[in-house]
Amino acid sequence: MMKKIVNYLAVAMGIVAIAFSVAAFNKVGATTPAVPAGQPVDLTYAAEKALPSVVHIKFVQNSKVKTIDVQSDPFSDFFNDPFGGFFGRGNGGSQKRQVQTPKRTATGSGVIISSDGYIVSNNHVVEGADELTVTLNDNKEYSARIVGTDKTTDLALIKIEGKNLPAIVIANSDNIKVGEWVLAVGNPLGLNNTVTAGIVSAKARSLGANGVESFIQTDAAINAGNSGGALVNTRGELVGINAMLYSQTGSYSGYGFAIPTAIMNKVVDDLKTYGTVQRALIGIQGTDVKTYVDSEKDKGKEVDLGTMEGIYVAKVVDEGAAAEAGIAEGDVIVAADGQKVTRMAELQEIIAQKRPGDKITLTYLHDKKKKTETVTLKNEQGSTKVLKHMDLDVLGANFREITNAQKQQLSISFGLEVIKVNNGKLKEAGINKGLIIQRVNDENIKTIDDLQKVVKEASTGKEPVLYIQGLYPTGRKAYFAVPLEEGN
To answer: Which of 56, 77, 124, 201 is catalytic?
Structure first.
C-alpha cells in the first residue's frame, strides 16, 4: 500500500513523494557495541534480529452501496421517463443513484513492539479497513483490530491476540548519526521478508506531506509494500518508520524517508493511554530562516535577522503559548530546551514528544538580541487539559436510521432520527425527540457510525462544537450548535 504526495518544493521537476508506512518502537538501550570506524560492516546480525518482528498486513475494505449525484442526460431521461422534466428530473440536472463500490485489498507492513501483540504501522495502511490480517515471519496469521490512528504523523497502532511474540528493540532515534548504516525491512512489491541496506543521508527533513514531520532520510531502497516496515540500525534496533520515497516512476530511485522513533514513541503511548494523541502546540506559524530570507530577496527586499539559522516566526496565535511568553512576529527561535534548532522540522520533533501542560524553554532573537523564556504548551482548544474522544453517550439520546416511508414523505435520502432524549448535550441545546439529523459539521449523517465519528473528531478538535442541520417530521428545518466542552 502506498500514498502518493506531490513534493511542493519540486513540482517543476515532477517529483512525486510516495508515502510508505513503517513500523514500531520500544525504549531499550543498546547493548551491542557499534562497528568501529573504518571497519567492514556486517549487517547479518541486524537482519536476523529485525526480521521476526516485521509483519505483513493485508487490508480489506468490503464492497459497499453508496449514493452519489450524477448529471442527467435529458434525452436518455426523456425516453426512460417522458414525464421526468415535469418532476424535476432530467433537463441536464442531477440525480441520486446508488452504486456498488468494488471490494478493495492492499498490503503493507508493520512492526511488533510488544510481546502481547501491539503492532505499529502507518495510518494509510489501515485507514478505512473492514478487515486486517497480520502474517508473521513464520507464516502464522492473526486478525487485527485498530487501537488508534493519527493522520498528523501517519501512524497507527493495531493489536493481535498473541503471547510471547518477537517484539523489536526500540532505539532512540535522536542518537542515530548521518552516515550510519541502516536496514529497511518490510514486504515491498509482494516480496515478503525483504531487507535492503543504506545509510542515513540526513535528519530532520520536512516534505510537507504530514502535519508533523521530521524525517530520517536514507538511501536504503523502499518500495510499495514497505509501508509500516522498520528502519533499523546495525544492532537490529528500530530507529524509524519508513514513510516517504522520492520517485518519478513510483518505484525506488533515490531516497526514502522514515518517521523517527522519538516521535513514534509518544504517539503510541498516547494512543494506548488516551485513545487519541495529546498534541502540544507552541502557538506560532513559521518557516526556516533561510526560506524566509530567500523569499524576501525574490521580492527585492534585504533582510538581516541576525542569523541564517533558526525558525522565523511569521505569526503568533492570540492567547497561545508563545504569545503568553512574549514571543512576537519577526522573532527567530534558535534553541528549544537547550538544543539548537536550525529548521522547523527540528522544532516540530521536539514539541511532538511533549503533551499539553508540559513546559519548554525557548531561546530566540528579538531585534537580534537573544532572550530565553519558558513556555507552557497548550492543546488545540487552548487549554492544558488532557483531551479524550467523546462517544455518543455525551449526547444523551437514542437514534435510528430513517425508514423508507420517512424518505418518501420528506423527499430525503438519508438521516438519523432522534427517538429519545435524556439528560445530555442535545437536551441542553434544546433538541427534542423527532428531529432528523442530516448534517453535522458539514458531514452527511447516514448511520450511527457517521455520527459517532463526527463526535469523536469534534471532541478533540480546535472547536469542540457540533453544528447540526436537520428537519422535523413536519418538514420544518432546524439548526443547532451543541457545545461539547465539559461543564456546558
So the answer is: 124
Q: Are 378 and 283 in contact (CB under 8 A)?
A: yes
43 touches 183 (CB < 8 A)? yes
Amino acid at 197: A
State yes or no: is 154 an active-site residue.
yes
Q: How does pLDDT run across 205-259, given as a tens digit for each residue?
A: 887 767 777 889 998 888 778 889 999 999 999 999 888 776 555 665 568 888 9
Q: Which residues contact 447 (CB under 8 A, 6 or more apart)?
A: 401, 416
Q: Which three cell numbers stand for residue 375?
A: 513556555
The strand pairing partners of 229, in sequence order, are: 22
What is the number of other CB atoms lying within 10 angstroms of the CB of residue 410? Answer: 17
From 187, 240, 233, select the one nearest 213 (Cα to Cα): 240
Q: Which of 56, 121, 150, 154 is catalytic?
A: 154
- Residue from 21, 53, 121, 227 carrying the catalytic annotation: 227
Residue with cell 527561535: 333
pTM attached to this predicted model: 0.72
Q: What is the pLDDT averaged over residues 269-297?
A: 91
CA 260 and chain centroid, separation = 15
* DSSP states of 340-356: E--SHHHHHHHHTT--T
214 flagged as catalytic:
no
Coil, helix or strand at residue 155: strand
Residue 196, all three cell numbers = 535492503
124 is catalytic: yes
Count, residues in the chain: 488
* Cα 462 from Cα 201, distance rounded (Å): 37
Rounded distance between C-alpha atoms, residue 460 and residue 380, angstroms: 8
**pLDDT of amino acid 424:** 87
Tens-place pLDDT, residues 44-66: 999 999 999 999 999 898 887 76
> Residue type at 256?
G
- Single-letter amino acid, residue 72: S
